[in-house]
Predict the 3D structure of the following.
Amino acid sequence: MTSDSLTSDDIFQCACCGQCCNGFGGTYVSTEDIERIALFIDTDPEDFTQTYCDVSANRFVLTQGGDGKCIFFDSEKYCTIHPVKPDMCRAWPFIAAVVREPGNWDLMATTCPGMKKHVAHEELVRIVARERKEAGFSD
Ligand code: SF4
Ligand code: SF4
């Protein structure tokens, strides 16, 4: 296979290890995320941010449980809000910031065993852009 034919499956296969729910860096939630999740868990956005969020760099992030994992992580079910999880989780690892700088992808791969390292940067940029477009993200 030539590098031109690499697909997202070639560079990422989720190992379902749950490490990305550990909370390092925080999971940002947008206004749309907050409204969607609040509805799903039958509360309102204000109560949701007070109960389930912290503030980091002036943005809401999901708070962590006592085990250091996201408050919505469950060791058996994994993500308990999977159908409405934040865009950041839905897109992972195909997030714009990951390919903004060469080396970011491999750095993130040290905490995500599903990400293949040492992929050419231009291939990463191409695949991430395609995945995000197909997933409906507008950037
Ligand atoms: S850390 Fe990576 S491999 Fe593990 S569950 Fe998250 S996305 Fe999947
Ligand atoms: S919302 Fe779900 S997928 Fe995202 S960090 Fe929390 S448990 Fe993990």
Notes: Helices lie at 8-11, 31-40, 45-52, 87-91, 104-109, 121-134. Residues 21, 27, 62, 70, 72-73, 79, 81, 85-86, 89 surround iron/sulfur cluster (ligand 2) (CB under 6 Å). The first helix runs from residue 8 to 11.
